[in-house]
Amino acid sequence: MIKTALSRVLPALAVACAPAAHAQNDVAQEVIALVEEHFVFPEKLEADAWRQATVVALASDIDALSGIEREDAVNRLLAALETSHTTYYTPDNPRYHELLDIFALVPHIAEHIERSYPEGVVTYEATGLIVDRTVSGRWWIREILAGSPAAESRIRIGDELLAVDDEPYARLDSISARAGGEATIRVLSSDGAQASEVRVGVERIAPRELFLRSMRASADVQRRSGRALGYVRVYSYAGLHYHEALEEIVASEPIASADGLVLDLRAGWGGAAPGYLNLFNRNVPVLELVDRDGVASPFAPNWMKPVVLLVDSRSRSGNEIHAYAFRKHAYGPVVGERTAGAVVGGSPFLLSDGSLLYLAVRDARVDGESLEGVGVEPDHTARGPFMYCDGLDAQQRLAFRVLEGEISDN
Predict the structure, then answer these.
(1) Is 217 exposed, middle or buried (0-12, 13-18, 19+ CB in 10 A)?
(2) Pairing mode, strands 356-362 and 345-350
């Protein structure tokens, strides 16, 4: 077994490991060794599924693969563990860089960042498109980050991504070294339709800056039937800085004057701490500060008006804890799909070739209950955007309808 050293435990139940040394740079052996040493549920390592998966992985020439193919091979091995927060990433995957940014304060991760990125800061090329792959290997637009170059284009959620500059889509490799320029993205909006080409700007940006900017850009108010319906999308909740930004957004115009709020925690990175829920706790005193002339100024750090939580099958980790608490403590209705059932503590482990293993190393209980493999059922169900949906978001539409009802009832 390859020996590694745990560094420190983070508040999010996370640890990081120094790159493992191995003479042959055998990815499969490194991953297996790390799993056997640190994986939270050792009983699963005795199951036939894991043992058979390791035999297949060790017999495969995984080192000869690159990018997506290597990820697929290693993740087939990890799938035998049937546990969340257990995924392998290569540097051509945007999520690789996002994870490094999340854990940037961990010493070994910090050293890797210092060596590998300009000015020692995690950055990557981005258009603002978040792309998923179907089982058949086709790529489609799952999200478009607000305030990003792609948000200004004609590309819509649900479009199929066919090519970038006439080459098959290859994640970050498709737009590498193009920051400050553009890429031509070919998309298909429906079966039988004619493909269209769209020029989209490419920028180099730090993940944290990208998600914070997009959260602020998402803040919007829709007016329906005389009601002002606020909306904010949290693309990542992995850090206090995101919650502080959310507090600023809901306390500022245009959201502050809205009659209610839809808080969208679909997809993205989890990490929301339970204490963040206090923002929606209405059981606190209403404080007014009165000056010598009798002018009263309300001091209202909490959102005291109706709120609806929007989640989907990709809402995970701390975001699921939010969904759990919204239902249990009646903060407001939950709309969307059952959450991912992915509530354990994960840690990043750098391999000797610079790739990354995100591994479940701590179990988690919420009020004594396990949400791992269970998730949280919404109060109101709607299917999420899918391929060829013409950019329509049925979940968001339902969330606004539910919010209108909540406002009318208050």
Answers:
(1) middle
(2) antiparallel
Q: Is the pLDDT of residue 339 over 50?
A: yes
Q: Which residue has the higher pLDDT, 25 or 385?
A: 385
Summarised one tens digit per residue, pLDDT across range 41-98 is: 999 999 999 999 999 999 998 988 888 999 999 999 999 999 999 999 999 999 999 9
CA distance 350 to 279: 36
**Residue by residue, what is the 3-state secondary structure of the chain?**
CCCCCECCCCCCCCCCECCCCCCCCCHHHHHHHHHHHHCCCHHHHHCHHHHHHHHHHHHCCHHHCCHHHHHHHHHHHHHCCCCCCCEEECCCCHHHHHHHHHCCCCHHHHHHHHHHCHHHCCCEEECCEEEEECCCCCEEEEEECCCCHHHHCCCCCCCEEEEECCEECCHHHHCCCCCCCEEEEEEECCCCCCCEEEEEECEEECHHHHHHHHHHHHCEEEEECCEEEEEEECCECCCHHHHHHHHHHHCCCCHHHCCEEEEECCCCECCCCHHHHHHHCCCCCCEEEECCCCCEEEECCCCCCCEEEEECCCCCCHHHHHHHHHHHCCCCCEEECCCCCCCCEEEEEECCCCCEEEEEEECCCECCECCCCCCCCCCEECCCCCCCCCCCCHHHHHHHHHHHHHHHHC
**Which range (24-28, 205-209, 272-276, 311-315) has the least confidence?**
24-28
Phi then psi for residue 106, to 5 deg, are -70, 130
pLDDT of residue 9: 28
Query: Is residue 391 predicted with pLDDT exceeding 60?
Result: yes
* Cα three-residue angle 180-186-189, rounded to 5 degrees: 125
First to last CA, the chain: 61
What is d(CA 87, CA 271) in angstroms, rounded to the nearest whole number?
Answer: 16
Whole-structure pTM value: 0.90
Q: What is the pLDDT of residue 409?
A: 86
Enumerate domains of the chain plus CATH numbers: 124-205 (2.30.42.10), 207-343+365-409 (3.90.226.10)
CA distance 36 to 104: 25
